[in-house]
Design a protein that fits this description.
The protein is of the alpha+beta class. It has a single domain, classed as Gcn5-related N-acetyltransferase (GNAT) (Aminopeptidase), CATH 3.40.630.30. It has a 7-stranded mixed sheet. The protein is globular, with a radius of gyration of 15 Å. The protein starts with a strand and ends in an 8-residue tail after the last strand.
């Protein structure tokens, strides 16, 4: 793995959308429109290697003490090589720096998140506002994603 995790450049947003489009076609993530990606580009981190954008993730702040890990996608050939973990650590580090107490994710891949310190919670334990994007999902209201949370406030510098 010879790539780097960093904030994206505006010139990379189209490539980010292409990777997201591939993942959303399989139902792995919600689709994102190009204007939305430009508006929220500062939420993202990308993994970049010689082939270009190999992965991405966003940290979306919902409240003073709660943020979502969203749009975590890794190029198929890079999966299983630690890219997802590096991307996740980038957003968790940012969340810690902002003193965000909890981060959550909605996922169909709970094993990845469990391996990275998240625990399954009942969706009802999350504030209603975290569901604002759900209406854009083709599965709404019959969501099959699993809600997972990681309590950063309880870690007190253990990472």
């Amino acid at each position: 793995m010879n790539g780097v995790v960093r904030k994206p450049r505006l010139t990379e947003v189209v490539a980010m959308k292409a990777l997201l489009d591939q993942a959303s076609a399989t139902g792995s993530v919600l689709p994102r429109e190009l204007p939305e990606l430009y508006e929220n580009v500062r939420d993202f981190y990308v993994y970049v290697d010689a082939e270009g954008i190999g992965g991405l993730v966003a940290l979306h702040i919902d409240m003073v003490d709660l943020a979502e890990v969203r749009s975590l996608v890794v190029r198929e050939r890079l999966r299983g090589q630690g890219v997802g973990e590096k991307l996740l650590e980038a957003v968790l580090s940012e969340a810690r720096g902002l003193d965000i107490a909890r981060v959550y994710a909605f996922t169909r891949v709970p094993v990845f998140f469990e391996k990275n310190g998240f625990r399954v919670v009942d969706k009802e334990q999350l504030p209603y506002k975290v569901f604002k994007d759900c209406s854009r999902c083709g599965l709404f209201p019959g969501c099959d994603e699993i809600a997972m949370v990681r309590d950063l406030s309880a870690e007190s510098g253990t990472e």
